[in-house]
Amino acid sequence: MTGRSAEAPSAEASERSSDPRLLLRLTVNGAEIEREVSPRLLLSDFLRHELGLTGTHVGCEQGVCGCCTVMIDGRAARSCLALAVQADGATIRTIEDVASADGTLHPIQQAFQECHGLQCGFCTPGFIMGVLSHFEEARMPDLSEDGIREMLSGNLCRCTGYQHIVAAVRRAARLMNLDGPEKG
Amino acid sequence: MSTQRFGERVPRLNDAKLLRGQGCYVDDVPLPGAYHAVFLRSPFARARILSIDASAAREHPSVAAVYTCDDLGPLDQPLPMLSPHPAIIAARTQRPLARDEVFHVGQTVAMVIAVDRYTAEDALRLIDADYEPLPVTVDLASAAAPGAHPVHPDLTDNIVGHFAQRSGDPDGAFAKAEHVTSLRVRMDRSTAAPIETRAIAARWEAATGELTVWDTTQAPISIRDGLASILGLEENKLRVIAPDVGGGFGQKVMLFYPEEILVPWAAMRLARPVKYVEDRTENFIGSSQERTQIHEIQLAATKDGTVIGLKDSFLHDSGAFAPYGIEVPRVSASAIAGPYRIPNVDVEFKAIYTPTVPVTPFRGSGRPHACFALERAMDQLADELGLDRFELRRRNLIGPDEFPYVREGLKYVDDGTITYDSGQYPKALAMIEEAIDLERFRREKDAAAKEGRYLGLGLAFYMECTGLGPYDGCRIRVHPATGKVSVNTGLASQGQGHETVFAQIAADRLGVPIEDVIVAQGDTAAFDRGGGSHSSRSAVVGGNAVHKAAVRVRAQILETAARLMAVPEESLELADGRVTVKGANRFMTLAEIAIAANPLSSPFDRPAEVVSQYGTAGQELVTVGEGRAPGIEASAYYSPSASPWAYGVHAAIVEVDPDLCSIAFKRYLSVHDCGKMINPTIVEGQMIGGIAQGIGGAFYERLDYDEDGIITNASFMEFLMPYATEVPKIEIMHLETPSPANPLGIKGAGEAGTIAVPAVVASAVEDALKPLGVGRFHHAPLSPNMIFEAITRARAKAGG
Ligand code: FES
Ligand code: FES
User: Fold this and answer.
1) Are residues B258 and B313 in the same domain?
2) Which of A74, B254, B412, B666 is 20 to 30 A from A184 (CA-CA)?
3) What's the A162 CA to ligand 2 centre distance in angstroms?
4) In sequence order, what E strands does B390-512 have?
């Protein structure tokens, strides 16, 4: 070991990074939030580590896995691909705001439970946010096998093989009366 | 009696919190004031480290520390060798941080600790590391050949170990053979890619001398034991928690990843919590991989298709280090004869170092390779003998009355002689044959051919030795206040649903509603003796331990209730959380019994008063009986004396587009037998998930190392994993043959799904393209390019 010790004097680094801070105002799950954040902070990190909304997961930070999906102004978006400061003025909804306040599961969540649509659960919030936004956007979602698989094709799951997720989407549509008039 | 829960499709008990986003994965653990660790990793496969200048990084105001190997003191030594074996010639493991040389791209060279991850990554770029690159041989066959550049400078070749074993008289069988089929098959490098990457967090309480570690590990107890020894801590001062973990598939069981030692160590040195979360690129270059093997396999047969001998000689790619010794190729060697009688077997392999990411078990662990070799050989043999593929297999499958079937001379990794315990292999084949409806398939194939489309049928059997020892344990306690039942085990879940299946087992024995069973696992504070969740062992070894402990607790409940109510035990019935005297209107709840079995000096309520010094109970109730714990509580351990062998058969109908060289699954079918199923829905989830991962490994997922040892597709953008659009609907058929190997009659189910898929897909593509005169597919994963080349070759041959 040469010269200076491996550790900072008395092992004390500054308490926070020396990044400049910008004021960020946004609405998250109905609450108005005002924070000073580093301009390079990812939206996913802001939600998880600044707001403690750890239900939004991070699986790749490459925009591929879909774990970090949240709704920004009503549309599904990958929070790992956005900077927090880009969400200034936006309205964000995360998985924590999907079940009712008393904990009752949303029909999509209920369907995932009934159909064994999750195993480790890491990908699950991203899938649910994706399906939720799809159901809210499309008045007549395509609930054919291929249609559902297409709907899910922005999210990776390494545990389930998707089949039970497909079943959960179909079940959720039933629970939410999105599957058209009941057949015979 | 309450309803039997074992065998029922009980919905999983811990889904709701995961669905609400309230799971707690390692990076979710709130650790105010935590520092973040990041790692400088080698950009070269082999290089000499000339210098590392970290001074600029250390001067960064938001950096707490930068460590290189020189700063690690006694930690700077090779990590443990986990599976010693006499056939290992040269065992090499890595150091936490590289010293003098690096051995693969991604190896950890320095650790930076800073106030947040962004700053820590800034500081990484301030480290000036100077390397002198060294020549490398990356390709497995070349690395095994004379003249290869040795990965380890103190060795003259790349041989990790050389292993051979035989059963019967293989030379005699080959001398007698009427037909011998020979082929060379290859499987390439892949990775488990769990959607949650690895992460470690640690908090040191200087005041109490206690260290808490959160780790995405599949084996928290092993990590605790090993860390205690490395850090010089007593076991009871060190708690390791594997909280919710986002998939593992083998990649999350290592002793140790460097980060697993360095992060806790840094938390102790700096007296601040420290957290490390691997990023996706690091997962590709810093976390274990598996799969590359090259087999030369031969089958000796009689004209009627009886396979009388098998010889297999293969190379296994170990990567740069061999922390698990030769475990993965030994599993391959143990699985090579599959479900067939084949009485004479000769199998040998060499495990080879290459300057690549170390290889450790990944779901299937050596078996997909063996299955690929054997099943591709069976297809080839069938063609050469002019026999139907189903018929050839039928003639060789071990019959249901031939168990236990022993392969004298062949050993599993636990050194037990290979002994298949039970199964109905011919029935499984018949079931899949019927489900495929061969007549219909032939009609569809002919109709497709008229339209210039190519349909093929693929088929493969697989076997899996499950429930690896040495043991696991369980402690069950009935809570006095609530009557709820705690079931604590040493296993850890990465999504398999243990908490539900263990609760099912306990609820049945103890006559309580399943909602009243609270399973704790993945935390050394809950239970700290046992193995881990790998090798398809949790349900088998852990489940039987739960069963044993529950049987003991049940006996305690009945015995205590009989004494308290002064009736014979035979007159009691245990159900719905209470013990009732049959035919009488008298009962005690489990809560009351648990209170009464715990003699107190100061009773806090009526039932407690009965057994206190002020109470009315007899003297023997006021003491704790010899060999008993106070209250209702028992522990038990289960150590398997025999291994249950799961098996199954898969088939697929695929359409190959000869212009796009793409494949599309028309059907994928699986018959599997994992013994008695605790929860069929969970088993189906495991099977389907495993098959999907197998489909990735059969057609999509290949890690491309270039000749310098750099992975050129180390991201989710380039390493293609199947989405919902690539995975077909999978038809699962269950066959339940109770295993005689353990009290619950179960076999493991975690890995089975992955094993057969590459062989099935190759078999199907080959079958589809036969009309074009296209040859054999002996290389997995298949790719559009391979199909293109095979078709081009066939057309050239036909034209010339
Ligand atoms: S973490 Fe955002 S897409 Fe993977
Ligand atoms: S449930 Fe584990 S990644 Fe989807």
Assistant:
1) no
2) B666
3) 9
4) 405-411, 417-420, 454-465, 472-478, 485-489
Q: How many helices (H) and strands (E) does chain B have?
A: 21, 29
**A&B contacts, CB < 8 Å:** 232
User: B449 with B424, same domain?
Assistant: yes
Q: Would you place residue B800 in the very low, low, confident or very high pLDDT band (cuts 50, 70, 90)?
A: low
Q: Is residue B727 part of a domain?
A: yes
**Ligand showing the shortest atom-to-Cα distance for residue B195:** 2
Residue B186, pLDDT > 70, answer: yes
Quickly state the pLDDT bin for A169 (edges 50, 70, 90): very high
Asked whether residue B464 falls in the same domain as residue B481, the answer is no
Same domain, B659 and B765: yes
Do B47 and B101 form a contact (C-beta atoms < 8 A)?
yes
For residues A106 and B564, which has the higher predicted lDDT (pLDDT)?
A106
Q: Is the pLDDT of residue B418 over 60?
A: yes
Could you tell me the CA-to-CA distances from B241 to A62, B238, B530 in Å, in that order?
Answer: 29, 10, 14
Spatial contact of B543 and B682, defined as CB atoms under 8 Å apart: no
Domain span at B713: 293-468+642-799
Q: Distance from the CA of A127 to the center of ligand 2, in angstroms?
A: 10
Q: What is the pLDDT of residue B4?
A: 85
The shortest C-alpha distance from B96 to chain A (Å) reads 16
Looking at domain A19-97, which of 3.10.20.30, 3.40.630.10, 3.40.50.1820, 3.40.50.920 is its CATH number? Answer: 3.10.20.30
Contacts of B112 in chain A (CB under 8 A): none
User: pLDDT of B269-291, one tens digit each?
Assistant: 999 999 999 999 999 999 999 99
Residue B179 inside a domain? The answer is no
Dihedral sign from CA coordinates of B671, B675, B680, B685 = negative
CA B621/CA B619 separation, integer angstroms = 5
Query: Cβ(A26)–Cβ(A47) under 8 Å?
Result: no
Q: Which residue of A has its CA nearest to B715?
A: A62
Please give, rounded to a whole number of angstroms, the shortest distance from the CA of A113 to a CA of chain B. Answer: 6
Contact B730 A163 (CB under 8 A): yes
**pLDDT tens by residue, A61-106:** 999 999 999 999 999 999 999 999 999 999 999 999 999 999 999 9
* Mean pLDDT calculated for residue range B698-708: 96
Q: Do A13 and B114 touch (CB under 8 A)?
A: yes
Mean pLDDT, rounded, for B6-14? 93
Quick one: B175 exposed, middle or buried, by C-beta within 10 A (0-12, 13-18, 19+)?
A: exposed
Q: Provide the phi-psi class of B183: left if phi over 0, else alpha when psi is between -120 and 50, else beta.
A: beta
The token pair that represents B475 in the structure block = 């402690």
What CATH number has the domain bearing residue B613?
Answer: 3.30.365.10
Indicate whether B451 and B315 sit together in one domain: yes
Chain A residue at shortest CA distance from B70: A1
Chain A residues close to B59, C-beta within 8 Å: 4
Q: Which atom of ligand 2 is nearest to the CA of A59?
A: 3
Question: Which tokens go with B15?
Answer: 């889904």
Decide if B515 contacts B545 (C-beta within 8 A): no
pTM of the model: 0.96
- Least distant ligand from the CA of A122: 2
Distance CA B192, CA B250 (A): 7
Closest CA to B274 of B27, B525, B72: B27
Q: Does domain A107-175 correspond to CATH entry 3.40.50.620?
A: no
Secondary structure element (H or E) that encloses residue B580, with its range:
strand B578-581
Whether residues B232 and B315 share a domain: the answer is no
Taking phi over 0 as left and psi of -120 to 50 as alpha, with beta for the rest, B109 belongs to alpha
CATH 3.10.20.30 placement within chain A: 19-97
Ligand nearest to the CA of B25: 2
The two structure tokens encoding residue B715: 């991201």
Which residues in chain B touch residue A148, judged by CB atoms under 8 angstroms apart?
Answer: 724
